[in-house]
């Protein structure tokens, strides 16, 4: 009953307080999650070398593909569950939850099988050179064996947040991050396991949080119940979850394709050094963009719940506040990177060549980062509303529609610099597209109605 009342806060508590209470835990959790990715890279860079970082960077698209399916189930399921809770359909919310767990189990079996069958040829296909192939295999083999832990933790984190329990969702990100940071130096340096040690430490950390999450659902702390009867897959539920989660899948999958394209062009026009430098910059991107992602994740359950409850005024207030906060954060990130890029690179390496190249490329890649907040909120908004068409377009726009073609074209004219220049150009066009879509659908969240419950605008059902 306590958890049910907690989910009902999404429809009654003042929006600024509610967004703060949901976003800050998400931001903290994602900060810590990004931190352990940063620490992982630091240990690998100093303990093994820049070629090892390049190997992990080459392997990363495989991990992104694995997580893309988990994202589709977690984010899609979270949207469906939050709307079911808003409509007081708790039994159906439990069925959605059970079906998501079943799909995660299937994903896990496929991941483990691929570790023994297609890992090495896939890494070669993704551009691994002989110098970095062994590092890539050493990293990805343990990761694939632990697919269940990654998929379960990633998907259920979104589901926990969908019922308004942001603090526990935060803990599910902090716990594996802390364990991973502790285990990294033990396995990499103490046991002299190198890159494989970093991967094993990551799997153990995800297994630990999986136990914690299972306990949460099985001991009645959640408003959702994990029951055997609900594990039976129902195609109608899976179809609805996938329809909403497809943009998240497309975004992750596009990210994987993007990484493959970038690595290929960096090797062709630069070398393994440039792949390693990009691997470091990618970690910096994750760390700096996480605050905006935290705001978006805090916003989504509020939007989903109030959309289901037809409280459109609260929905509009949430979107406007989310836009203001993310735009402010993006300008702070821009100022930081422009001012001290070399300090950021020095966190990861003491190699003067890597620092010099990374500082230049950082400034290029972050030159339009102040536009990202609009796209982040737009994509998260349509996912929460259950509008797969718009969400899919926004999720794919930056990486698949704009970034990848630019990455493949620009280096032919300006060399390796073209790979990095593609980022700010794609940021501009993605922001423009998000602005156009949100302006077109402004009747949903920028309408003039002041009543908390009004008739749903026609645009809300246009998908």
Summarize this, please?
The chain has 19 helices and no strands.
**Average pLDDT, to the nearest integer?**
81
Shape: globular
Beta-strand proportion: under 5%
Q: For the record, give the distance between the C-alpha atoms at the N and C termini, rounded to a whole number.
A: 35 Å
What is the strand tally? 0
User: Measured on Cα atoms, how large is the radius of gyration?
Assistant: 21 Å
Count of individual helical segments: 19
Series of H and E elements = HHHHHHHHHHHHHHHHHHH
Helicity level, as a percent range? over 70%
Q: In terms of per-residue confidence, which ranges show pLDDT below 50 for 5 or more consecutive residues?
A: 1-5, 447-463
General description of the model:
The longest helix is centred in the first third of the chain and has 37 residues, at 50-86. This protein starts with a helix and ends in an 18-residue tail after the last helix. The protein is mainly alpha-helical and 463 residues long. It has 19 helices and no strands. Helix 3 (50-86) packs antiparallel against helix 10.
Outline the secondary-structure elements:
Elements: H1 2-8, H2 15-47, H3 50-86, H4 90-117, H5 119-125, H6 130-145, H7 147-162, H8 166-190, H9 194-218, H10 235-269, H11 272-308, H12 312-339, H13 341-346, H14 352-365, H15 372-385, H16 388-409, H17 411-414, H18 417-440, H19 442-445
Helix pairs in contact: 2-3, 2-8, 2-11, 3-4, 3-6, 3-7, 3-10, 3-11, 4-6, 4-7, 5-6, 6-9, 7-8, 7-9, 8-9, 10-16, 11-12, 11-14, 11-15, 12-15, 14-18, 15-16, 15-18, 16-18
Which labels suit this protein?
19 helices; mainly alpha; 463 residues; disordered N terminus
């Amino acid at each position: 009953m306590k958890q049910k009342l907690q989910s009902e806060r999404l429809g009654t508590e003042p929006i600024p307080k509610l967004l703060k209470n949901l976003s800050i835990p998400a931001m903290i959790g994602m900060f810590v999650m990004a931190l352990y990715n940063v620490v992982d890279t630091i240990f690998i860079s100093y303990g093994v070398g820049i070629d090892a970082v390049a190997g992990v960077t080459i392997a990363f698209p495989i991990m992104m593909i694995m997580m893309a399916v988990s994202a589709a189930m977690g984010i899609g399921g979270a949207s469906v569950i939050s709307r079911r809770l808003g409509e007081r359909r708790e039994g159906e919310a439990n069925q959605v939850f059970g079906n998501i767990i079943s799909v995660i189990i299937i994903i896990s079996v496929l991941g483990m099988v691929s570790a023994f069958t297609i890992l090495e040829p896939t890494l070669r296909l993704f551009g691994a050179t002989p110098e970095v192939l062994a590092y890539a295999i050493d990293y990805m083999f343990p990761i694939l064996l632990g697919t269940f832990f990654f998929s379960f933790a990633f998907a259920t984190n979104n589901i926990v947040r969908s019922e308004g329990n942001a603090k526990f969702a935060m803990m599910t990100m902090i716990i594996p991050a802390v364990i991973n940071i502790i285990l990294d130096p033990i396995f990499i340096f103490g046991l002299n396991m190198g890159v494989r040690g970093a991967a094993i430490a990551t799997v153990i950390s995800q297994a630990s949080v999986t136990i914690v999450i299972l306990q949460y659902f099985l001991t009645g702390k959640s408003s959702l119940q994990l029951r055997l009867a609900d594990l039976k897959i129902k195609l109608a539920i899976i179809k609805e979850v996938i329809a909403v989660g497809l943009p998240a899948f497309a975004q992750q999958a596009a990210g994987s394709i993007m990484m493959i394209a970038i690595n290929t062009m960096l090797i062709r026009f630069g070398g393994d050094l440039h792949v390693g430098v990009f691997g470091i910059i990618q970690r910096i991107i994750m760390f700096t963009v996480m605050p905006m992602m935290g705001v978006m994740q805090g916003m989504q359950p509020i939007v989903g719940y109030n959309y289901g409850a037809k409280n459109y005024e609260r929905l509009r207030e949430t979107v406007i506040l989310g836009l203001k906060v993310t735009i402010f954060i993006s300008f702070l990130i821009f100022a930081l990177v422009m001012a001290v890029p070399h300090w950021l690179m020095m966190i990861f390496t003491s190699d003067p060549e890597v620092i010099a190249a990374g500082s230049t490329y950082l400034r290029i890649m972050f030159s339009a980062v102040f536009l990202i907040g609009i796209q982040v909120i737009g994509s998260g908004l349509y996912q929460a509303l259950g509008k797969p068409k718009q969400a899919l377009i926004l999720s794919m726009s930056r990486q698949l529609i704009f970034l990848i073609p630019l990455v493949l074209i620009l280096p032919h004219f300006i060399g390796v610099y073209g790979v990095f220049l593609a980022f700010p150009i794609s940021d501009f066009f993605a922001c423009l597209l998000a602005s156009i879509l949100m302006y077109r659908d402004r009747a949903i969240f920028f309408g003039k109605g002041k009543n908390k419950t009004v008739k749903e605008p026609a645009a809300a059902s246009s998908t």
